[in-house]
## 1
Amino acid sequence: MNKIHKEAERSEILTEVGKVIIPFIQIFAIYVILNGHLSPGGGFAGGTILGASMILHRLIFGWDNLISRLTYDRVMKWMCASLLIYGALKGYSFLTGGMHLEVWDVPLGTPGKLLSGGFILPLNIAVGIIVSITVYVFFKLFYEGTI
Amino acid sequence: MPIYNSYPLVIILLLFVSAFAIPIFKSIKMARIISISAAGISFALSILTLMGVKADGAYYFRVGHFDAPWGIEFHIGIIEGLMGVLFMTVSLAVLWFSVYSIDHDLSKKKVPIFYTLVNLLVGSLLGIVFSDDLFNCFVFIEISSIASCGIVVVKDKKENIKAALKYLILSSLGSGLVLMGIALVYSLTGHLNMPHIHDVLVSIYPDHSRNMLIAIGLFTVGLGVKSAMFPLHTWLPDAHTYAPASSSALLSALVLKAYVILYIKIIHRVFGMSIVGDLPVLNIVLLLGAVGMIAGSVLAILQKNIKRMVAYSSVAQMGYVFFGIGLGTTMGLAAAIFQIFNHAFTKSALFLSAGSIIEKTGKKNIADLKGVGKEMPFTLAIFTIGGMSLVGIPLLSGFNSKWNFAVAVIEAHRVELLAVVLISSLLNALYYFPVIVNGYFGEESLEGKVYRNTERPIKELVPIFALVLGVIYFGVSGGGLLSLIEAGIPALK
Amino acid sequence: MEHLLANYYETGAIILFGVGFVTLLAHGNLIKKIIGMNIMDTAVFLFFIAKGYIAGNEAPIIRSVKSASGYVNPVPTALMLTGIVVAVSITAFALALTIRVYEKYGTVDLNEIIKMGGE
């Protein structure tokens, strides 16, 4: 079953509104990811919002615009790099904690400040990237039938 | 703290990180190198862990910087060490064999995904075995469900997708029930760490016995669906038949076992025999195990496809394990764990050799495989040794396993159950022997076949020979393993 | 009976669990089975999170220097976040498989697919 969708003609309202709204959605997503340790949100919720903005971009601006930026290879490389960074950070924390080693640890900081909380901030960023790419890949799989 | 304490965590991290490093390089050769080297290093680390635990005793390893009730801990005793060695041995042999056989079943694009999924699967199964925290076990259960459905569906045929969908839906049913059980236990005690839960449960047992009965029931049905206890096994024949040969070997040998180990840990570590002994749960598990032993074999006799017959035989052998758990005695538990070892080695050898026969001759039905012994003598020899082990011929590990069950039954003063063990051994013979006899003997079967016509080169059969060597080794010297298991059981509780 | 009405969150969660369970098993349509699975998982999340609620306390966020009198238990919320992510990923995987099944078999009814069988 072929799933080639005929792209509707460019609607000017959608294009103009999209050009203004999508950056705001992405800034909001980055805000939610970075404030994961201070207020509700974090990697999962922020990643979903970022993925939703990528889906919106793909729906409004069509295939030609996105084919050069979010190909399968590039997206997979970002996701694997994020997963490896996540694994390395977590592995360092687990092994030094479990073996009771006295090595350098990420400074904990004070509660309430943005750049504090030890490992939580880099981990939230990695999780945000992973979740957004996963949401986008699943949307492409359902919409077009192939990745 | 000795360095081998951290090896279980290093094994799991290594397997996960190597699984995520594979999609970066897109070539099949790099995927194989990364996957097999990670499995090889993990195999060496697991042996070092087992040697360390045998020398120094069981230990707790805290993961991260927080201690027990607030952080996650791993508990490594002799039984967990043995399981680690078993899982890494079987998965290393299957990965080695898959280098020669997986190209035949999958398209070229999907082979790296297969290696990613296998590494994820083995890593998460080891996580279920090692972890001492209930919710951590649940997360690893979910990872292993998705990975095991993945290795069924990575081959792209029509019936694979149907089998994987049935497996996924029934598997998530099981996970939902297990999560509800964890919710009940958490609401009773407020802890998620197994020894802490045990202390609280023992003290509040008289007031909340009905709650605990429901929780044990939910865990039994949930983990029973995932590890093919008798009436809940309906997903198993399709999933194990249509998967590629290496996937079937991994699914049947390893995936079912990790959930059984978790079930043993829940019954004996979280609840303990003082609570479970009053409830009728173990008797029901014993009954379902006994019925499974016989019904699985009866259903296997009726099958025409060779892999489907071996899959139903898996249901029967898992019935043995539940039979041993249901007996409730230490000897029964030791017999069940020995059967886990026996079945893992035997069934993986059987599935790999059956898959090899199907791949080389192109015929799937037993009726078409007459005389295949002349064309593929060594492969059918491996199948023969595996089959004879499951029937219970002495000098092979299956005989030791059935002997252990008989001793456990007599020690528990339930001699009438001995008949079940004997009848199921007899039924096993009824469906393994026709394949073997028709393969090697019979004049009209052998005419027209050329000797070693379609045989695999010996170099490709070496991994399956390694598994068969394990079967013979546990057959000849099973006593050492059994005493090791019995020494490890008190630490499990 | 008043116990059931006093803990109305947990009662509602168990009823939803039963609804989801029966939907998962009884209907033949694959999409309904996936919906039933989601209802069942959501019911467990509701049960777990409701068990962490303590009446009269606030959400566990430190807003300013003067903190509230007591906080709700944050552990079940964090655990269920993981559970929700797992449920979403299994739903996505099952839906992707359903699309492939529809392409190859032409129907989404599990009973008819089993009857069709074959290679």
## 2
Amino acid sequence: MSAAAIRPSSLQPRDVLRVGLVGLKTRRLRAVLSVLGVALGIASMVAVMGISSSSRADLLAALDKLGTNLLVVQPGQSFTPGAGTSTLPNTANAMVNHADGVLSASTLENIDGLTVRRSDHIDKAITNALNVGAVRPTLGQTVGATLQDGAFLNRATAQYPAVVLGATAAARLGIDRVGEGVQVWIKDRWYTVVGILKPVTLAPELDSYALVGLDYAEQALGADDSPSSVYVRADTDRVNEVSSILGASANPEHPEEVEVSRPSDALEARAKAKTAFTSLFLGLGAVALFVGGVGIANVMVISVLERRSEIGLRRALGATRRHIAVQFLTESVMLGAMGGAAGATIGVLVTAGYDANRGWPVSMPAYAVGGGLACAVVIGALAGAYPALRGARVAPTTALRTA
Amino acid sequence: MSAAVVELSGVRRSYPGGVEALRGVDLTIAAGELAAIVGPSGSGKSTLLYIVGTLERPSDGTVAIAGHETSTLGDAQLAGLRARTIGFVFQQFFLLPGSTALENVANGLLYTGVPVEERKRRAREALGAVGLGHRLEHRATQLSGGESQRVAIARAIVGRPAIVLADEPTGNLDTKTGGEIVGVLRDLNASGTTVIVITHDRAVADALDRQIAIRDGLVESDERKDGRSPSVHGRPEEGVNHQTRGWMPRGGNP
């Protein structure tokens, strides 16, 4: 008989998956238990990323509602020696309002040296760290302020000793509603509280102000319409363009001394910086994942020992050492992938539940789910590498004789 | 042209620790033979079977299986030889407990690269040939000992190997069932397959055409039932090309 060339044995890729499943199907409970650790690790990582992403999405949604087109113009440091902080000229309000791309603008003039008290019997030294500001009636709308009680200043109340309190100011003064006889003492007389603001997200500095109409403040409090801030609503599509021309509009003589900021940017940056605790939880998830990987490795080592006769049989049926290694590696990767899939599902559900509870929009970044799955597969492969090599090294005859 | 499918010459096998399982075995088995290798436990007959089955390499001497000198072959080629040319039947059956009879038999073709549908089709035929056509979907754990061994034989022959090696195939079975299994092996041989049975059961060995007795790692005796010398390859089956044996019913599809 002539010796024709031997065709080496081969295992179809489809069969690799089928063979990898055999062990898992035979020992279902063990497969489920060994997958638990990885599932928990992936679930916690996915949930942490999902929840922090949802929290950020919630803030951004809130910002969207408030508008990201609010700009704040403030006098910066003067470059003239000895001049200290510069001020904005009293033309600022009109100039900025007429600037191209500006929807509305309104000023705040901080009046130094005044205190807001519940009565004139209270010591002047107790300032409660509150400020008095002179504003136009348009300010409320421009900064998007909403009222806790009462109303913002209008053309009429701006002519009189009337005051609107920021949220912090109202709380420190112990005032929670407007009404007859609700008054505060500023400088030398009573001012009627006509409105209490809710916290102003985009202009939180207003929270500690007692706001008086500019017209009345000019008569009674020495205001001169030299703004300490100009709040500007720009056309949403032209915010950057408007931002660049505001300096020249607000202070034509010294445009370089004007600072323009966009409060929504600062808030977004702060939301993104809120990742310190996120990384802590990610670290805990990684520890769980590692422990889960060790669990899979354990189970695989035991599986290889228990299934020596199967290894021997497969070698007898024509499996090469490599086929045996591939089988156990596939099994381990499948365990990892199952853990990853279960973990990602749990993570998404936890995120959805938490978000629903907090009333946040659900935001699950694709990289969290994809990365979680990939992580689990890699863990499965690493955990299976050593057991697979051990399985491949078992001599077929030993494997058959030990049965 | 030689009709020998198994040719051992001067085969020795020693294990670490100084145990010599085989101490110089010369053995030729021709295509189409039905041979028993008998001997007490520890005689080296299992080692001989593993060497013939290429699961183990000799320490010394040469082994040629189906014309291939095994010392020249690597792991992948030896595995290919086992996948296509050699079928194994074990005393403990070694069926995968979680799989059905059909799946277990189909596994006999797993490492030949045959697609799964074709594997199952041929497994059905093979199970029919061993008289288990009605037990296809039973799990291995639901089968009796005799049925399990029939499934194992079907798995060994599903790839139509030239050689079937059976290691104590009746060792875990009662006498009657064991006799039936010997019958199945005889039928298999009648279709042209070379069958080598390892056994310490004299009755089983006597039912086969040739008895090779092993003791202390050496061939002690080698007899044919018909009294002819084992070195003469004048058997009527010699002309049969074992690659085209047709004892299994062929399906309608090519």
